[in-house]
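Q: Got a minute? One more chain.
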Amino acid sequence: MTTKIIHGPTTVYRFKVVRAFLKAGVPINKIDQFREIFEDQGYSLSHSSNLSTMIDVINKEEKEKVKKEITGRNVSVIFDGTAHVSEATNIIVGFVSDDWKIEQHLVKLLLVKKSMTGEELAQQLLSCLSTNLGINLALLLAATRDRASVNDVAVRTLKILYPNLVDIGCFSHTLDHALRRENGNTRLASVYKGLDRSFCSQSEKQNCIQNTDRTNSQNPLSYQMVVKQQALLKIELGATVDAMKPFVKAIYDLEGDGPLALRAHQHLRTVESSIANAYYPNVIAVSRLLSQGNVPVQQQWINYATQCIRPAYQYYQDKFNHGPLQPLVTIFKSCRLFDPVKVKEMQPDAAAVHTLRCVPIFHADNVIQPLQGELATYQALTDDVAVEINVLEWWSQHSKEIPS
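A: Always. Here it is, folded:
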């Protein structure tokens, strides 16, 4: 028995269909349900089990395409693991294309039976980035990941081979941990457990809440506890809304798309300003209501709200201003020089450009000096820049005038 091999346009069409399903994330076996529609084009499709054999070919083509795209370019890597469904690690490479667009490609999805050690993860990263993609040792500039200890080990190993690598631990995770410090100091999750322990039945709780006079006369201690817990809950909710809203906004902003390196410092400073300003309108309103005009009592409620917030603020200060993330904050601060809007606002001098030396790729004199030489031209180009611009589009239009 011989197998009929079909060449030419039919094979090309089949590859096109399979590629479309892969890009859409649709299982290949669904092709059989769409066969009649696809074959209206005049080409035949084989069974989905046969078409699935094309996946390996397409995968190899895509890898070669990515390898060609990143050759000679500055590249960053993003890697992350999850145990949501099973142990899995994904590796993504990112770069800026010739037309100044940020491109990201998933280059490896690794399913494993158990969590990898730092050394094992480093081996997978090196195999993917160096062996498979052939990324030049000087051109891998950043590694973005969460701050799990296993990732610390992997990045330290990567930096041995890639000396210009900047380790970018996820700011959003750290801000989320700060939020947990605040929530952990309040009773939002446990307040009703106190009610459960204070009453014998659900009906008694309802009587207490719905008929305060009756509860007050029958069970004054329980009544006082309910009133106090409700007051605490109100003031804690006010503190959470007032103080933690900037944290939540920064978390979402820092998980967005686009040139985040240019905006990260601004997001962090916004959080820090909210800490310094200590403006808590909801806390003030709730404390005024609870104190019923008694100023000393109102101040006690405000002090309590401040105590609830303080652990989150202290955690932020320890991590971003005095701890392991401080050098990275300095790097992002210097990177604002690549935002024309900020350059127009700051009017930097040559000394400001010198601060870019904290970024490994800009450390050498033969890199910094050309940037300093172009500063006057750069500033002139920013004179009429709008407040809201697409930074990448701006650089696409002006990169030939300031090529360094």
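A: The chain has four domains: 9-59, 70-169, 173-194+228-325, 339-398.
Q: Perfect, thanks.
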